[in-house]
Amino acid sequence: MAARRIKGSSINWTALAERVPENQRPQFTNFKVKSDSYLRRVLASPEEPPKIDWAAYKSRVGVPGMVEDFQKKYEALKIPYPADTLTVQVEAQQKQATKEVQDFISASNVRIAAYEEEVAKLRALLPYGQMTMEDFRDAYPELALDPINRPTFWPHTPDEQLDYVEKTQAGEEKH
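-> structure tokens emitted (175 positions)
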């Protein structure tokens, strides 16, 4: 299997830089500089190794058969390009992550719609400075004082009422 030649970086540095937090920009810049220097070194090397002039070595080396032995071993040497075994796993992870992101986006859109409804209700209310007790009771029936149906004692907090039960740390009830 012939080695594939790298033509250039396959990393989208601009898209990656947009996702890097400000406090990690120096590390990102250092990483990019190192990556670019490695890429330049690879691209500076020739695609094929230089041809060896075996005849010149045969004429200079006095040991008979040594150059021929080296030539046979050199030509028999085949360094295989590593097989790509992880691309399938990475693509599966990418599909899973994309699905999770889409699920999160749809759930977030539902929450946003609910929050926008709540904000619209709050904006429709009278400002508290202009609100009367009756307006407050109409807007917040669960919080308003109701002396007829739910009489309370001053200061009208839950712990000052007759039916209040304090819970201790042990989970026991204390009256």
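Residues 130-167 form one domain.
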